[in-house]
Give the backbone structure.
Amino acid sequence: MQFKAVSVLSTACIFASASGAGAQVYNEPQIPSRFSFGGDIAISQPKGEFANNVPTGYGFDVTGMFRIDPKGWFNIRADIGGVQYGHERQRILFPTTGRVALNLDTDNRIGFGGIGLQLQFPDGMLRPYANASIAAMDFWTESCLSGTDNSFDTLCNQNHSDWSHAGIFGGGLLIPFGKSLGSLNLGARYHYGARATYLKKGDITDNPDGTVTLNLRNSKTDLVLWQVGVNFIIPRPTRR
């Protein structure tokens, strides 16, 4: 009987010790690494002569950063994203019969990817930052054919694409979520875009003989990219 009591007490002590150790590990604060990433809802606002041809666009932006110094004043920043500034849908009939209707959707988009440097305040409840990058820009238009009831796979064709570049200067504000490694991002970036050719809604004309005419536009491509999103610092693995 005494042996059973000792066994029960020993088992209880082992479980209590394991639970305490687990709670201690769980309560350990996360240690930030030098890497962070973020995602934003992006709104493009054309400027200058570009604004005469292209309306406001909507899309996304994904950011990755690496802290050069341990504190995080200086960072290497990389961005990739895109916006859509035009959409057109036409309902057409199948060439050999009027019994089948199809949707012809045409989208006008801008894709971009850049790399540069960011200077920011690493501490505080409000953390302002400023950045500069060089970016590649792709202005492209694509038309896709699909069934009105999504009964078959979409068939797509790229009508036009033109690669260009831009110098980017921006700034914003990070607002941390309490003691976590996440923060709210409010930012704006001015793209000093080089000249490029592009299409907007209505710039593709269908000819009676089945060919198409592209009414290409050519201008500088300056725009402001407004960003609202979140940013997270990747935690460093803890040693046990």
The chain has one helix and twelve strands. The longest helix spans residues 2-27. The longest strand covers residues 155-176. Helices lie at 2-27.
